[in-house]
Amino acid sequence: MKISVIGAAGTLGSCTTYSLIIRRLADEVVMIDQAEGPLKGHWMDLATVGNALDIKVIKGTYEDMAGSDIVVMVASAPSGAIKSRSELLPGSIPTVKANVDKINQYCPKAIVITETNPVDPFNYFTYLMSKDRDRRRYIGYSLNDTIRLKMWAAKALGVKTSRVDGLVIGEHGNSQVMLFSSLKLDGKPVKLDEATKQYIREQPNIMLNDFETLIPRRTAGWTSGMGTAIVVEAIKNNSQAVIPCNTVLEGEYGLRGLSMTVPAVVGKEGIKSVKVLELAPDEKEGLKKTVEAISPFMRYVEEYKSKNP
Description:
Elements lengths: L1 E5 L4 H12 L5 E5 L3 H17 L3 E4 L10 E4 L15 H18 L4 E4 L4 H10 L9 E3 L2 H15 L6 E6 L7 E9 L2 E2 L4 H19 L8 H17 L3 E10 L5 E12 L2 E5 L6 H27 L2
Parallel strand pairs: 1-2, 1-4, 2-3, 4-5, 5-6
Antiparallel strand pairs: 7-8, 8-9, 10-11, 11-12
Helix pairs in contact: 1-2, 1-7, 3-4, 4-8, 5-6
């Protein structure tokens, strides 16, 4: 399997590249970035890791993406501190379009995992830019939300995170919908009191603020690298694993014309299908609010594409 990482010199890109190599998920990894110095530094180090595992690691250009089975796109425009990922949309959309143009040119059949934030409209935009509009090949990475829900729920329950299951759907952002009805401990349903639920709901914004105020700035590179490897492994092994992914909807949950996080069946062709869950009343209301929050951004990328074909 050949995987290309666009934006490989940044925290997210380098951590993702390391995770793909160390878990032996590719025979060849192409690292692409406009920041030549940082890219070379990461490449020299990661190429050594790859060499030890018989994996070819290339410091490449867009042309080297040809033949890629998967492209992980993490590149974005520089930004200052933010309070919401949606603030990054206007600044990064030219960068995303330029990268998608190159993907369409050199590996138009690759599965594209978009990690550039805000991932909801950017996954939709990447899909809109494609020739065949095959939503299976367009996956927005948003698994971190579910990973963190399980972490915070496990802490509240006083157990190891590995014993807890649960899901987050909706926006990868402030309006995300934590499905507390999906929480399970050792495979059995478990309930949290309302005060604990509200405490957990507040944590994503607190964590984002903590990341944004760090000097020097950081982002969730290692978490995203681990989660990306989970998605790639499901594709490589055609495991049909159910993974929360940002997905273009085609009627599921009564929605079209947008991308958001939903539980998706992932296999060798990407998104095989979407699991439609029965939601609790408060979760249905949360879903309505998340759709209201992200819909303007979907219309923004539609308009941008119409003006920049």
